[in-house]
Amino acid sequence: MRALKLIGSWWTAVLPVLALAGVYVYLAFGETPYPLWHEFVYLSAPGILIHTALIANLLAASAIAIISRRERPGLSAIDVMAMDVSRELHADAFGPDVRASVRKWLAERGFRSAHEVGDAIYARKGVYAVAIGIVLRVSLAVLLAGLMISAHTRQSASVNLAMGETGNPLGYTVLAGGIDAPLPVDFLQVGDSSIFRMGSVTVDADIDGTRIAITSGQPVRARGAYWRVTHAGYSQPAVVDGRQDRLLLDVLPPGGTCPVELQAKSGQVYTVFSLAPERTVKKGLLSGRMYNLGTPRYEISLRGRSESGVMIRSTESGLLDNVRIQLGKAEPFIRLTVVKDPALWAIKYALLLALAFFGLLLARLFWYESRIVAIMEGGSVRIGYSEEFYKKYGIYKFNTWLEKLEKRDLK
Amino acid sequence: MREALQAALLMLIVLEHSAFAPCRRALMYSVAAGAIAGAAAAWSAPATDPASASMLRYIAEFCLFYFGLVILATPHMRGPRLSIGAVIALGLALYAFESRALWLMAFNSTQNDISVSKASAMAIAGTIAGFAPLVALRWHSGRLGLERFFSVPSAIVAIGAAKLISGGVGEVEDGSILTATQQGLHYFIENAIGHLRHMLMLESHAFLSVPLDGLFVYLAGPRTATAFLVIMVTVPPLLLLVDLFSRPDPYVKHLNVAAERRLVIAFFRREMIYKSGPLILSTVALLISMHAVNANVNPMVEPAHLPVREADESPGEIHIALTDKLGDFTDGMLRKYVYYYGTDKVRFMAMMKPDGSLGVALDECEICKPAEWNTKAIGYAQRGDTLVCKYCMTPIPVSALNKPGGCNPIPVSFTLRDNTIVIELGELLRVYKAAKNMDKKGTHF
Q1: Which of the listed ranges A191-195, B107-111, B167-171 does the model predict with the highest average pLDDT?
Q2: Which are the contacts of A127, defined by CB distance < 8 A and separation ≥ 6?
Q3: Long-range CB contacts (< 8 A, 24+ apart) of B106-112?
Q4: I need a surface site. Which of B191, B265, B291, B332 has the fewest CB within 10 A?
């Protein structure tokens, strides 16, 4: 128990946090402290030790809270005098049946479930209030442990897939079925900063025989890993000087450019693709550019020679510096990211739980433990009272109870 | 002299407190040692990176600020050696950095044809002048007995708070410790949120909608960092206040005379109020200084009024080009102009609203009427996507430009011709005169 109290003490919580803060401050003298600090915390031996100490502290503090709540309060006269406040009253104040009167008096003060042990009666209120702190500490411990495990075991990979294509990220065989990417035929870009926002992108994927719909929203779990669509663009079939090719054009949002190497008859041709607007719209001071993202039109130029550009719409053809480029029907491609992380679920749910119970901590302002002990010895009753918080108010409250009790007795 | 005077005032709290009686000499020697060490650091390494020097000062001042809590939490550790050690550290922290900055200023002044001896003499004279009142007070007056107002932890926290608010030498360092701490916290939180998003596979994206993106962006914003900073600076004095006010009234039941019981309780409560004064003052002062942090996060911008006159090619009109050497209206920034009408200054402003339309209005509203001499309160400034009336500090959304009434700037009609704002001079003057004749609320400022 002593070891548990030492591990779960405030100093064991504060010192590791101060150590981490001190390391960060030291690294802050440099340019980019956060990545170095992250490396220290998760990958260096001292960092792992400090991290482990914090986790142990949180769990030990929770264990201490549970044990202390289960323990019966001390029932000796010395224990009662050590409480926040205690008074000795004449037994006559409680009438002929002292025990029953004490129980009744306790019940009137909200201590409904009193326990008798020998000549002592004790009762507690708000015992379960500590549960909020326990759940918060345990969820924080799980979160920290999850982050540490993740830092050492996480594997991730990404693959670009058009409809019907297969990829092998992290050893999985993924076949992209239908891809649903909402690309509007009339998108107006106003101003310099891109305002393009694509709705949810969905791909019907087959992962090692398991069919699942993967979206750009929350990651989905399949085959022991987590999957999410993390990017989209155009998969553009092309025939360049008679040679079939499929170009992955990362030209979204409109205004973006994508360097592409084309294999022409004359050799490698280095080009830059970008989306070309259908027309320009003037509204007030601003010029807007209208794009057809369903059947896009591209501006293709030679790298380093923007004046050499040619406009070719998908399903059409054109000539760029004697290179014939014939484009097929543009389809969306998606980038699928897969993460294998045994701790990801723990991180997610521990974080949610920690946030929820952190908010619930406010309830502790009103919900806290108070305990009362009455010892009947000879012709007197010694009563002691303690509150978890607001001790001064608790003492005042107790004195008021006893004054009322004594006045009632006098009456 | 200013920094020395500040250090002297803070030393007074410690010197006049009975709990520090065994450490008074240690404090005085350590302050002197700090002054000498600062001077030596300035003369031996004047090219030390100012950012690093400021960082060290920030660390020292925050350690000082939080040390009060450590003392509160560890009363059983207050042995004489620890106390003297702590007081020595306090003395060094009180003046070493200011001394370094002062001697850096002296060193820099020698680059401007001021002799070394003259610069040194001025620095020494300023230091002596700053500490002189303390010496005089200690020499001539009786003990002030500041333990009525300060406990040991609250003395340390109050000194720490004073250093946080006014530490450093403004001429050498730019930005306050609180602003720098807010920026540092913002950087940390931004990166931590980014790391968390990466762990949850919810990284931000240029155009894909990501779940909880708005929440993450808000949490990673400067306001969260400011909120953390407010908690950081208010926790120590508030904890000490809670500790102070949670002490129960003294036990007086054994006193037979009721008046005596009341006297004991009244004395106890009065002492509590005296001791809470410096803590409450520290908290309020820190919260007020947070205003400077907030202003730095979201600065107010007010351009100077550019003088305009009638267009040469179109008398009776004022022309304002949408694009000129000063920039383009599409930048969304407020632009101010002034037309001199006899002895009157007709101040007006123009800017592009978020929807792409233009807004032109007088640089005043229908309600506020600041005095002419109170130039800092006249007109509007821009803060982000709002216009702020400098008199009543009411924020007006930029989209409300051109809409009359209330705190909105008084609109002026205009036309747009060939990428030029065209304002009829007659219309401008009509609106100006009407605004001047309005029965606005006066002011004593």
Answers
A1: B107-111
A2: A69, A369
A3: B106/B42, B107/B42, B107/B43, B107/B46, B108/B46
A4: B291
Do the beta carbons of residue B169 and residue B46 sit within 8 Å? no
Q: What percent of chain B has pLDDT over 90?
A: 22
Task: Give B-chain residues touching A179 at CB under 8 angstroms.
Answer: none
Spell out which residues of chain B touch residue A391, defining contact as CB-CB under 8 Å.
Answer: 246, 248
* Separation of alpha carbons B387 and B400, rounded Å: 9
Q: Give the span between the Cα atoms of A176 and A87, in whole angstroms.
A: 78
Q: Which of B52, B208, B329 sits opposite A29 (nearest CB)?
A: B52
Q: What is the mean pLDDT of residues B32-59?
A: 78
CB within 8 Å: A200 and B209:
yes
**pLDDT given at position A192:** 57
Query: Which tops the pLDDT comparison, B239 or B135?
Result: B239
Q: What is the rounded distance in angstroms from the CA atom of residue B35 to the CA atom of residue A163?
A: 74
Tokens 């050498």, residue located: B172
Contact yes or no for B390/B301 (Cβ under 8 A): no
Strand B305-308, strand B335-341: pairing: parallel
Query: Shortest Cα distance from B377 to chain A (angstroms)?
Result: 31
Q: Letter for the amino acid at B335? A: R
Shortest Cα distance, chain B CAs vs residue A244, angstroms: 30
pTM of the predicted protein model: 0.80
Q: Are strands B395-397 and B386-389 parallel, antiparallel or unpaired?
A: antiparallel
Contact: A190, B322; criterion CB under 8 Å = no
Chain A partners of B249 at a C-beta cutoff of 8 Å? Answer: 392
